[in-house]
Amino acid sequence: MLRKLKKLCLMAGTAFFAVAFTGCGDEEHYEKPKTAIEEYQPWTYDTVEVARGDIEPAVELKLKATENEKKTYYPLLDEMEVEAINVSVGDAVSQGTVMVTFKSGDLGEKIEQYKTRLEEDELLINHYGRLAEIDKNTDYSEDIKLIRDDMNICQLYIQEMEARLEGYNIVAEGDGIVTEIAQILYYGVVGSQNGVVTVKYGTGEFVASTEDGFDFKEGDIFEATYASAVIDVQLTKIETDEESEDGSVMKNLYFQALKDIGSVVSYDTVYLNIRKNVIKDVLYIPEKALFKIGEKYYVYTMDDRNMKHGVEVTVGDTENGYAIIKSGLSEGDKVVID
């Protein structure tokens, strides 16, 4: 038994050395162990140099429309035949603009007939009035009364038919812009369930909010822009919120477009850029380089050895994303902005 055990151990040892020898001798299968720790890299920061020069501040506002809404118009009756489409998508319309007309048969002709009859009745009344002046002994009052009764009936018919005729027109209810015309109109016949024209209406009023200390005054006129369009707007109202902890005050500014309201209502947002007086020869840094601890402001500066240092600074106004530095930094100093 002992002899068998020694033999097995000898065979296992031989196999171990054979494997070990083979592993050491085959260079193609040998791989250098990889380390899981990355090599050291120095910490880097985004920095800018403290600059000295002029700042050209501006107030940039986004003006949002306050009362824009869309309305889709439908024919009054079924199987109405299209007579004319008077507008296209993008057209500005005003109150009373006839956008689509439908064939009304002889309704318009009948209205004209009754109007002609009214004119004739008026001539008859004048005629009897002259006869009464000539012939004082003849009473024409009954004849005049009958004519006036006929005129009243004519006017009622005209009112009724004109009301019906309005149903053969699609008329804009205010100042707006055509945003959609249904393709079914071009087939010539539509029904009361078909929305045929959509108009976007609005008042031309816009509102913007800002904490900028610019001296806004009601009545001032500015040029707002939308793409390449320039729109004259007038400041009509200023609403002021309560002062915040940092001393800033939020103002809600209301502007009114001065003309072309029908076109202006197509804009949900317009932009206003107000240039302020140039601030000359000041030291400034990006506002995002500042951080506040308590009531004091600080920045991180970077020295020649790439070491970061906290420095207290005195800050003046902030304009267009830049903070004016009154003390604590010099021109050319590098400050961290990330």
Task: Give a structural overview.
The radius of gyration is 43 Å and the shape is elongated. The protein has 338 residues and is α+β, with helices and mostly antiparallel strands. 17% of the residues are buried. Mean pLDDT is 83; it is low at 1-27. Helix 2 packs antiparallel against helix 3. It has helices at 2-25, 107-134, 141-166, 261-264; strands at 47-49, 51-55, 58-65, 69-73, 80-85, 92-93, 98-102, 169-171, 176-181, 189-190, 197-201, 205-210, 221-226, 229-243, 249-257, 269-275, 279-286, 291-293, 296-302, 308-319, 322-327, 334-336. It has four helices and 22 strands. The protein has a six-stranded antiparallel sheet with strand order 2-17-21-20-19-18, with no helix packed on it. The longest helix is centred in the middle third of the chain and has 28 residues, at 107-134.
What is the fold's blueprint, element by element?
Blueprint lengths: L1 H24 L21 E3 L1 E5 L2 E8 L3 E5 L6 E6 L6 E2 L4 E5 L4 H28 L6 H26 L2 E3 L4 E6 L7 E2 L6 E5 L3 E6 L10 E6 L2 E15 L5 E9 L3 H4 L4 E7 L3 E8 L4 E3 L2 E7 L5 E12 L2 E6 L6 E3 L2
Helix pairs in contact: 2-3
In short:
The protein is of the alpha+beta class and about 350 residues long. Helices cover about 25% and strands about 40% of the residues.
